[in-house]
Amino acid sequence: MAAARTEQSERDVRQGFNVTTYLIRRILYAIPILIGVNLITFALFFFVNSPDDMARLALGGKRVTEEAVERWKRDKGYDKPHFFNAQEQGHARFTNTIFFSKSASMFVFDFGVSDDGRDIGTEIRTRMWPSLAIAVPTFLVGLAFYITFALILAFFRATYVDVSGVVACVVAMSISSLFYIIGGQYLISKLWHLVPISGFDYGVDALKFLVLPVAIGIVSSIGANTRWYRTIFIEEINKDYVRTARAKGLSEARILFRHVLHNAMIPILTGVVVIIPSLFLGSLIMESFFSIPGLGSYTIEAINNQDYSVVRAMVFLGSVLYIIGLILTDIAYTLVDPRVRLD
Amino acid sequence: MTVLRRAFLVTHRVLSGTAILFGTAVLCGTVILSGIAGCDKTALNNPYPAHERGENIMYSFFSERPKHLDPVQSYFSNEIRFTAQIYMTPLQYHYLKRPYQLVPFGAASMPHVTYYDNEDRELSAQAPSSEVAYSRYEITVRPGVYYQPHPAFAVDEHGKPRYIDLPKTQLKRKRSLADFEHTGTRELVAADYVYEIKRLAHPALHSPIFGLMKGYIIGLDEYARELAAFAEDVPKDVYLDLDRFDIRGVRVVDRYRYVIDIHGKYPQFLYWLAMPFFAPVPHEAERFYRQPGMPANISLDWFPVGTGPYMLSVNDPHRMMVLERNPNFTGEAYPSAGEANDGQAGLLEDAGESMPFIDKVVYNLEKESIPYWNKFLQGYYDLSAISSDSFDQTVAVSANGEVGLTDEISERDINLHTSVAATTIYLGFNMLDPVIGGLDERSRKLRQAVSIAVDMEELISIFRNGRGIAAQSPLPPGIYGYRGGEAGINPYVYDWVEGRPKRKPIEYAKQLLDEAGYPNGIDAATGKPLTLFLDTTLVGPEAKSRADWFTKQLRKIDVQLVVRATDLNRYQEKLRNGTAQLYILGWNADYPDPENFMFLLHGPQSRAQASGENASNYASPEFDSLFEQMRNMQNSPRRQEIIDRMVKVVQRDAPWAFGFHPADYNLAHGWVHNIKPNTMANNELKYQRIDPKLRERRRDQWNAPVFGPLVIVALLAIGGLAPAVIAWRRRERSRVSETSVRAST
What we know:
By secondary structure, chain A is an all-alpha fold.
């Protein structure tokens, strides 16, 4: 017994070592990916906008002089060459450029200040909470709801419940999310006066503002998600182990919620875990219609304002979160299926 | 890993076992929350905290966050709407009188202006501009005015500033102004106004009017150069001592007086004194905010320090901004005189009362028009503009063209306030273009023909719901020099018929086109159809229909129009390079003087040749000569005569197809008083008054919760689910063989 325990312990240590090695390797892989993403963002941004354009927009449409444009560029560090500074010597040829000066600090998560002087890190820290306040309940409650609904449809497969459910899902998928938002605001807030149409507050006061956007967020995705989960469950439900479970006399609910759900976790996790980090980034339309002060519109505003400092920070953050999501997915596979090893 | 796996399995079981309960919990939660909200006496859909019920608070909204609240930078209307309430400019516009009239605000009286020649001899007020070497504006500041409470003024028991030159370690923990426990104040002095003028030249502040003002304020250019050279050695985040150098033409005379010397004669300078660029800024604020280590978001650009009636108490521009009554504001009397009808309109009921009337103004961010419009109808916003979506629901136009409100809106005791903006939107012709440009007769007739063909009345009707008036000249109504009626019409585009301007017939436009050498839209010289190009930055669903509309207008005279949708950067580049042919631009008045519109056509201000505001690159010696005479004159019959001549020249030369002047339609609930549209002043908040009790009664009346439909929805859901539940139970009780058979089928 003791020997078996020791063997188990050694196996755990070995696996833990493997996971650590794997994580280090993935983090090292991430560095060139992030540099590449930065490079592409930089190239795309400055392909469309020149520093002169940025200066003119920042200074406003009226009475902008060439001198003011030059002063703005000098002050914001956009008067340097893009990638290579021929006037410098040594490594300064590369470091005294717009690309390097705007990118290097991000690798230690120092996002600096936006072109209009705001601290980007503070903005992100402030705005991610309202985004999460919408996204997390929508994600969790939605996930539980979609899976439950899909399991019910799978349980009633090939009956009127299943057919009606699938038809309802297709109809729900065909409707624009804007319709749900405007319709929800019209019915719930305007006609029935049950919750505020839009707005946000912090703490407990936030609840009355969150009910409607969360409910709409769940309902608007019900069609696509339920159909997807239903397909996974139907495929799983036809496997031999389900037939065996039935033969053993297990209740259908137990088969579905315990065995089928467990074995369907790999495809579910593939789609779900990867989006968890991106919950921080919020939803543009939802936040816009409900006046939620989240991160959803931050990048769009920055693109419209030609604020490269914010754009590169948000793209970098998005890339980091996506990489984290992929790593979490891989780790989640090992939790769901012991046969998967992170070697 | 084993522990993690176990944790996962437990989580999975809990999730799967309680999955159904989640949905139920959410529904129950909603009902419980609704119940809790219903316990206080506010309506369920009330977006504001219960403790604000009945308070003297105005609720408004903003759709775009202000970028700058530093008075030296704020220029856009969404910025000045805040800074104008916080800062006390030397002058302000009279709230009620028209035409617009400047009155003292931070100044004790109107500035004393004297003129001098090259040898410093004083000249009379009527001296011609050519003799005036410089003008001196002596301004006396109101004594006894104090700044809002602010940590920059806080002093310790020894009288030393508490929060100046703090170590970085202390500043690191600060997140907002509220983290500084103590506040203080001090009296407004003349040096604060001079300090702000120096800030125009600050190398890191990028004031939009620095380029203009360095041409007028004597010594500002040299000062800027000295300061820039000095700033080279000062780190960016360190306080830059602006008082190290002086501006030759700006000086403090004594505690309450300062003077500004201006090159030549520039009467419009008084209008600039009513804008935030010349508001007072205390040097303590700059020293406080520019300490090394102060977080970037705690800055004068984010937290203004003023002496005006309001102070910014919450600045969360992604959610809300709150202005609160400045406890140190010395008060100001509501005007006791206005226009003839103001008394009848109830605008003089508060005459002589101390302002401001409202304690607090809450501005919420609303990016979409639907939510703010519905909240306005529910009584949660006091004022609202009218979006295109809700125009038909709101405004009714009678058979004789009178604008009013629909019955649905009138029943709610909502009032409509209309005004024509001091704005001109125009279709410009690039005068450097070989086809459409030039001052020769051929191109002139071509432009006149296009001006007739583009039916601005139709554009206003289709795309602006009739909100606007077709322009006859660059000058909008309300600006000195504007002429209405028959005397003001553009005779090259309109006829005066039955007491109103009527656009000339298309046949006449075709005739002009023929005379220009394009019979039936064909270039007689080349035999090719005439094709013109219009650059626009229009985007969105309306862009296509607008483009099609413009194309259709020119098709009326057999001219082909190619509309080129261009992004803003390339559009501006084309205007800068003079490569656009037709373009659309607009201009909002900085101040109510004809010079502020006529300079848009002044030759030396050419966009392509001098980076100026004359985007058409129009250069008429006749117009330029008249402009030079008119620009620095006081308003007088002689000035009006020159303006009339200038208008006739541009109507003939047609460098623009004079587009339209937009009309603003604004709504106010019946509980809001003292609303009078003022397109020049931005500090209107202090004049407005609300009746919070009436507002609460109306809100309660309009927002009673309706639970019936929810119950019906719940019953329908239960009814729909019941057969499924029964089937589930039946299947669970069925025998294994039956289930297997059914599954296999």
